[in-house]
Amino acid sequence: MSAGESLDHMSQVIVIASSDIQRCSAAEWDVFRKMVAHGMLYEVVEWIDQGKPTLRPENKHTSAFETALLAPNLSMTQVLWERAWQERREAVGALGILAWHRTSDVVMRYLLENGCPVDHVSGSDLCMFHDLEMVKIGMNRGISLLEPDGWATAFVRVGSRPLIRLYLEQKDNLPELRKDAVRALCQCIAESRLRATALLRWAGVDPLGKAPRYYGMDDPDEEWNSFPAINLANAEKAGELLKLLKPKPTTEQWFELLIATVRGKGEVVEEILALRMDPDAVFLENGEQSSALLRDLLFSMCWRWSWLPSRDERIAKFCIRLLELGVQLMWEDKDKASGLRREIYRSSNRTHIFKVLSVAVERGGEDTRIALAELVRVPKMRELVIKEAPMILTHLATPQASSQKSADSGMSPSVTKGIPIARPTHAKQSTSGRRAVGYRGGRVLTRKEIYSDVWAAATMHVAKGYGISGSMLARICTQLKIPRPPRGYWARPTNARKGMKPPLPPWKGEQEATWAINPANVKAQKRNRT
User: Fold this and answer.
1) pLDDT (mean) for 340-365
2) Are 284 and 263 in contact (CB under 8 A)?
3) End-to-end alpha-carbon separation of the chain, Å?
4) Cα dist. 29→22, 38, 79, 216, 452 in Å?
């Protein structure tokens, strides 16, 4: 029977149950179904030749045709399909039943060739039979090999050679199949499917080519900003997969692969480093990328993934290794420093974070010290530093030329590329500059500096620049005998303020009094200069 004759016959034998077609009685149905179940082919042919009904009663749910499919009995299936009446529901679900149970590829192929509806069968179902000829017949019937539920889904599950041959045959005809192969490689690496990974690599799928960040999502082409090998980070058999893939990444890909591996299970960190002849030299030659790597790892330590207990310790050791090599910690802008502060506040275990920051302030260069100074600029963060690692403030308190220069100019020092980041201020900065002292995070202010500042701007703005409250600044002025502007002074016009500023009274003592502001608890304590 030709394909055209099969389709014509299909329209004759598949009917929707109606009153025009006689159905079996309960007794007839029991006899007919038992003959089908026991494979009594000649008895079934004789039953049909006598004109007896073959449609099941309406109160019965078991189909004789389905029974023949699941047997599987090809001869019985041919007889029922070509000579007996079938309900459309039975015929439409036939291929879906075979695909689900995968009882016989011969029966499946026969029904495909003879016009059985393909409503309930997908490309993945056909591929699971590993019969390329049957898959091509299904493609001619309109079944798609593309995702979702296409060739890639079946290949990830079984990873067979016939399916990789099918890919090699059809990848030029179906360009989208190449993208499905890339997604399949991503999933095979993530799930440690060694056989499937090796076959895809043999078929030419590039582990360093463009790939979606998340292989389970249908991202547009412009959002394919990753590569399949990045999934090695959390693979169970990362070492064996790395040997199969044999990647040769670019420097940028090497950094991405490294940070993902350190963040993940960390089983192949040394193997990833070994992809470069001298990884230490690569870190030093690519300062900005190394700094970004260090910065991202600091953020990662704050996430605290409970399912990887040794993760924070591994990341901390790697960060210390980078710092000892001379990698600098720098911020792209102030928002990065603020973001890390917020992550540190939310972190439940800060031991490893402050361990890295302590090494950074001891081993790091000028850029690292500037970045850490920006990090601890906020009083809340300074309190936390004093609690966890007070030596950070001790090292930052050492006078530095660039810090002195930036303080005099009223600007925060540069964190990248020598571009200063302005910090808004309402108080007029003293021309003499702030002098840092050698004890824990202290800042010493003289009476003349405080007197000059409180008469140059409103008290609340001056206090904010010092990092203390307005009431605390008022108490400081009282104890140091510093006159302050009266209430309503700043509401007056400029001309009306003339003559209201009293001179600074002399200090009764051998030495000029100073005031030390302790950033740890934001309390001011009187201190004499020695």
Assistant:
1) 85
2) no
3) 111
4) 12, 14, 17, 48, 107
pLDDT at residue number 193: 92
Q: Which fold has domain 1-121?
A: 1.25.40
User: What is the C-alpha separation between 331 and 321, in angstroms, rounded?
Assistant: 19
- Cα 415 to Cα 364: distance, rounded to the nearest angstrom: 13
Average pLDDT across the chain, whole number = 79
When comparing pLDDT for 276 and 528, which is higher? 276
Cis preceding linkage at 424, omega within 30: no
Burial class (CB in 10 A: 0-12, 13-18, 19+), 248: exposed
How many Å apart are CA 432 and CA 445, to the nearest integer? 10
- Burial class for 360, CB neighbours closer than 10 Å (0-12, 13-18, 19+): buried
The answer on pLDDT for 407 being more than 80 is: no
- Secondary structure of residue 413 in the 3-state scheme: coil
Domain ranges of the chain: 1-121, 123-276, 293-424, 428-530
Please name which of 294, 350, 353 lies closest in space to residue 325, comparing C-alpha atoms: 294
Amino acid occupying residue 209:
G
Find out whether 10 and 114 touch, Cβ atoms under 8 Å: yes
| pLDDT tens per residue, range 225-277 | 889 999 988 888 988 999 999 999 999 999 999 988 888 887 788 889 889 89
What is the spatial distance between Cα 408 and Cα 422, in angstroms, rounded to a whole number? 13
Place of tokens 């056909």: 126
- DSSP, collapsed to helix, strand or coil, labels residue 422 as strand
Helix axes 311-325, 251-263, angle to 10 degrees: 140
Q: Residue 136, SS3?
A: helix
- Whether the predicted pLDDT of 188 surpasses 90: yes
Length of the chain: 530
DSSP string across 51-89: T---BPPTT----HHHHHHHTT-HHHHHHHHHHS-EEHH
Instruction: Give pLDDT, residue 166.
Output: 92
Strands (E), 401-512: 411-412, 421-422, 435-436, 443-446
d(CA 512, CA 452): 16
Q: If residue 280 lies in a helix (H) or strand (E), which one and from where to where? A: helix 279-285
> Distance between CA 148 and CA 130 in Å, rounded?
19
Supply the pTM of this predicted model: 0.66
Task: Please report where in the chains the tokens 């000028």 appear, as a residue.
Answer: 366
pLDDT digits (tens, 9 = 90+) for 204-227: 999 999 888 777 666 666 678 889
Task: Indicate the pairing of strand 443-446 with strand 513-518.
Answer: antiparallel
Residue type, 402: S
The closest of 92, 86, 94 to 55, measured between CA atoms, is 86
Partners of 525 in the beta sheet?
Answer: 516
| Of 68-72, 273-277, 404-408, the least confident | 404-408
Question: pLDDT class for 403, splitting at 50, 70, 90?
Answer: very low
pLDDT category, 315, cuts 50, 70, 90? confident
Centre a 10 Å sphere on the Cβ of residue 527 and count the other Cβ atoms it contains. Answer: 16
* Three-state SS at 527: strand
